[in-house]
Specification:
Elements (H helix, E strand, L loop, with lengths): L5 H9 L21 H16 L14 E3 L5 E6 L7 E9 L2 E4 L3 E2 L1
Antiparallel strand pairs: 1-2, 2-3, 3-4, 3-5
This protein binds zinc ion.
Length: 107
């Protein structure tokens, strides 16, 4: 099933010239925290990614991700549903071209 690759296809698309949140052309400083639209987009992406990702250590599905979006880079963490509750994490950074969304990898 190709769903596994769908989030990464979205990632590649978002890292290109596609303006996902409309900040291009608007004077914003890099230290400004993510706006609501950015937080919403990151939540949607990682809810989808976590639902389609299995733990690389034990193969268990991942729980809902927790997102800390009070500053850049945005930190994402999710634990697997296995007995060991392996931790997976990812960062999201703002780049001149859009958002750079990393894959959820085991921490
Ligand atoms: Zn695990």
């Amino acid at each position: 099933m190709e769903w596994f690759f769908a989030p990464w296809t979205l990632m590649a698309y978002m890292s290109g010239a596609f303006d996902t949140t409309g900040w291009q052309g608007i004077e914003r400083n890099w230290y400004e925290p993510p706006v609501h639209a950015e937080r919403w987009l990151i939540e949607i992406v990682y809810e989808t990614v976590a639902a389609e990702t299995r733990c690389t250590r034990c193969g268990a599905p991942l729980d809902h991700p927790r997102i800390r979006a009070d500053a850049w880079p945005v930190r994402v963490a999710a634990r697997c549903r296995g007995t060991a509750r392996h931790r997976h994490r990812a960062d999201v950074s703002r780049t001149p071209d859009g958002l750079r969304i990393d894959p959820l990898i085991r921490a």
